[in-house]
Amino acid sequence: MGTLVMTNFPTPGKKQVLLGKIAEELSFNAGLQRRGLALGFFSISYGGKLIIGTKADVSLFPDPSSVTRFTQLVYDEFEYLEKAV
Question: What is d(CA 32, CA 46) in angstroms, rounded to the nearest whole number?
Fold first, then answer.
């Protein structure tokens, strides 16, 4: 038994200026360090890019490639949905 968390961080549609420079990319790992979290999945759209990240409990997902494959499948689904719209 485990817990899955999915979160999406909304951002402005265009790149923002931070300390006088354009922020080209964003990344984060907020809230995914909770105990008992089997799989954490997060996404962020920024500057025309979709960034997807995962964090998994190694006792439930001992093979890191299984998490990588899962993340790729999710990304592929986003691409499919984008083309369908």
Answer: 20
Q: For residue 10, give its domain range.
A: 4-84
Q: How far apart are CA 49 and CA 68, in angstroms?
A: 19
CA proximity to 50, closest of 2, 16, 8: 8
Could you read off the pLDDT of 24-60 as tens digits, one per residue?
887 766 555 556 677 777 788 888 887 877 888 887 7
Count of domains in the chain? 1
DSSP 8-state class, residue 72: H
> Quick one: tokens of 54?
């995962």
Q: Are 34 and 56 in contact (CB under 8 A)?
A: no
